[in-house]
Amino acid sequence: MNEVFYTEPFSENYRDQVNLASAGGSISFDIQGNAAFRFPTAAAREEYRALKQRAEGGGSK
């Protein structure tokens, strides 16, 4: 069975990492040692994206 990976590019930004944890994601590394944000589900990745957008001022007040 093939496992589906839901990822976003790694960010050193503290707020992005807090949003990652809030959405249930983690930091993972590929075989070459490159870091990425990894999410257990597509919904968790979408939650991260929404939190990030809100933090960047893209959400409504």
Brief characterization of the structure:
By secondary structure, the chain is α+β, with helices and mostly antiparallel strands.
Layout of secondary structure:
Layout lengths: L5 E4 L4 H9 L3 E4 L5 E5 L2 H14 L6
Antiparallel strand pairs: 1-3, 2-3
Helix pairs in contact: 1-2
Characterise the protein shown here.
- The chain is an alpha+beta fold and 61 residues long.
- The chain is built from two helices and three strands; from the N terminus they run βαββα.
- It has helices at residues 14-22, 42-55; strands spanning 6-9, 26-29, 35-39.
- Strands 1-3-2 form a three-stranded antiparallel β-sheet.
- The longest helix has 14 residues, at 42-55.
- It is globular, with a radius of gyration of 12 Å.
- The model has no long low-confidence stretch (mean pLDDT 92).
The portion of residues forming beta strands comes to 15-25%
Q: Structural class given helices, strands, pairing?
A: alpha+beta
Q: How far is the N terminus from the C terminus?
A: 44 Å
Q: What proportion of the residues is helical, as a percent range?
A: 25-40%
Question: How many DSSP-defined strands?
Answer: 3
Order of helices and strands: EHEEH
Instruction: Name the shape in a single word.
Output: globular
**Low-pLDDT residue intervals, each spanning 5 or more residues:** none
Q: Which sequence of strands runs across the widest sheet?
A: 1-3-2
Using the CA coordinates, give the radius of gyration.
12 Å
Q: Total helix count?
A: 2
Mean pLDDT: 92
Largest sheet: 3 strands, antiparallel
